[in-house]
Structure formats: structure tokens, C-alpha cells
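Reviewers of the previous submission asked for a worked example of the structure-prediction workflow described in the proposal, so we include one complete record here. The input consisted solely of the amino acid sequence. No template or homolog information was supplied to the procedure at any stage.
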Amino acid sequence: MGKLLIVDDEVDVREFAANFFRKRKIEVSTAGSGEEALEIMQKHKPDLVLLDIKMTGIDGIETLKRIRELDN
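From that input alone, the workflow returned the following C-alpha cells.
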């Protein structure tokens, strides 16, 4: 199975989604901010990212741009 990163600043949403995928035997990491997501991306290199767009601090669009820069 692949690795999944769930990024959302709302704990309830993040944990609900994480539990959904964990029950299906998918390895899940979670992040509560764009900054935290970027750190996890460098360490764990997930195969898929579920990313909230509206977050405090670095929003989802900026986080996505920075994730794409990491891949180059």
C-alpha cells in the first residue's frame, strides 16, 4: 500500500479522514498546517496528499506550490 498525507487545520476533519484510511490498511501521516506538511513531505515522501485549501498560515495553494518545488 502507498503512503498518504492528510493536511487540514481542523483536527476533527483530519482525524476522521485519517481513521477512514487507516481502517483500509493505508499508511497515513497527518499535518495541521502547510508548514508541518512541508516537513513531513521531506521526511516521509508520501505517494498522495489530501490538502485543505483554506488554512491559517500557509494556505493550501501555497503549500501545493512548495510541494511541487520539492519534487524538482
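DSSP finds three helices and three strands in the chain. We consider this example representative of the routine output the project will generate in years two and three.
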